[in-house]
Amino acid sequence: MSILEIIEYRAILQKLREDFPFWHRLSGKTILITGASGMLGSLLVDAVMLWNEERPDQGRCSIIGVVRNLERAKARFAPWSGRPELTYIQHDVCEPLPELPGRPDFWIHAASTTHPVAYSTEPVNTIMANVLGTRNMLDRISELGGRFLLLSSVEVYGGNRGDAERFSEDYCGYIDCNTLRAGYPEAKRVSEALCQAYSEEHGVDAVILRLPRCYGPTMQMTDSKAVAQFIKKAVRGENIVLKSEGRQFYSYAHAADAVKGMLWTLCVGEKGEAYNLADGQSDITLRDLARTAAESAGTEVVFELPEEMEKKGFSKAQRAVLDAEKLKGLGWRASYSIRAGVAETITILRKCANG
C-alpha cells in the first residue's frame, strides 16, 4: 500500500497544510531539494504536491527533486506521476550540479547519511555529501540566485560540557575530531561555515536549520538510529532492544514538524542565521523512548550489547537538548509530542507493511 493511501498519513499532510501560514510565498515558485526521496524530503514533496491540488496551474509550486536512485524515487512518488510540477534529477551531490529543468527560487540541501551504521560503513561519503554537496549547491546559487536552506544538526554542538541545560545557537561543545564518528558533526560544521563564507564573498542568501533526532512515517527502513530501530521493532510486534542503559537525554522531532520548520525557516528566516528546531514535549531519555515504543506495540524493553560496527557510529553525547526559542520567535510551533508521534508512526508503518 502506498503511504499516500493511508488516512493517518494524509491527515499529517493536511495538518501541515493548515498549520503553515506562508504557503502563499511558494505560489508560482520552484524548490530544488537534494535527498528528495529521504525521510524529510519525501514528506516535503508530498506536502507541497497536496497543496498544489488546491491551486490553479499558474499558482502551483514546482519541485526539482535531486535523488541518487531514480527508480526508487519514481516508485515512492508514483501517486504524483504525470504531474508537471514534479521533476527529478538523478545525481550524486558530491559532483557539480548538472543543467537544471528550471530556475529554482529556493534550494534545500537535505541529502546526507544520518544514522550510525552509515557513519561507520560510509565515512567518506558522510563527509563529502555534506561538504561537497553544500559547496556544489552554493556554487550554482552564486550563478542563478535564490535562497538556500542548509539542513544541519544538533550534532554540531558536540558533547555537552556540563555548563548548559539546553543548547542555544551560540553554544559550542566538545568534539574529538580524531575519531571516525566525528566525520558527521565536523562535516555539518564545515557546511555551516561554507554558508557564511558564500554569503560574505558571493552574497548568497543562506539560512540554517539545526534539527534534533528525527523520526516519522517516512523514515527509511535502513535507518539505524535508536528511535528508528525502536519503531521498526514495534511495527513487527517485537520486543524493543535497548543497547545501552538508556540514560541519554535528547531532543526529538516528528518529520512533519521538521518539514514545517524547514518551510518556516526558508520563508521567514533571517539571512545568515541558524535556528534550532525542538520542543519540550519531545525531549526524552532513550530508556523512556524505548518504553514508549514498547507500550504502543504491547511488547517489552530488553537489553542487548551493540554490534561493533553499530557501536562505532554511536554518539557519545549524554545530553543533547536544543533551545528553540529563536525559531519559536518566528512563530513556529511543534504539533506532535514524542508519545503521540511515535504511536501514530507505528500505526502508519504497520499499514504500509500489511498493505
From TrEMBL:
<dbReference type="InterPro" id="IPR036291">
    <property type="entry name" value="NAD(P)-bd_dom_sf"/>
</dbReference>
<dbReference type="InterPro" id="IPR001509">
    <property type="entry name" value="Epimerase_deHydtase"/>
</dbReference>
<keyword id="KW-0210">Decarboxylase</keyword>
<keyword id="KW-0456">Lyase</keyword>
<dbReference type="GO" id="GO:0048040">
    <property type="term" value="F:UDP-glucuronate decarboxylase activity"/>
</dbReference>
<dbReference type="GO" id="GO:0042732">
    <property type="term" value="P:D-xylose metabolic process"/>
</dbReference>
<dbReference type="GO" id="GO:0005737">
    <property type="term" value="C:cytoplasm"/>
</dbReference>
<keyword id="KW-0520">NAD</keyword>
<dbReference type="Pfam" id="PF01370">
    <property type="entry name" value="Epimerase"/>
</dbReference>
<feature type="domain" description="NAD-dependent epimerase/dehydratase">
    <location>
        <begin position="31"/>
        <end position="278"/>
    </location>
</feature>
<dbReference type="GO" id="GO:0070403">
    <property type="term" value="F:NAD+ binding"/>
</dbReference>
<protein>
    <submittedName>
        <fullName>NAD-dependent epimerase/dehydratase family protein</fullName>
    </submittedName>
</protein>
<dbReference type="InterPro" id="IPR044516">
    <property type="entry name" value="UXS-like"/>
</dbReference>
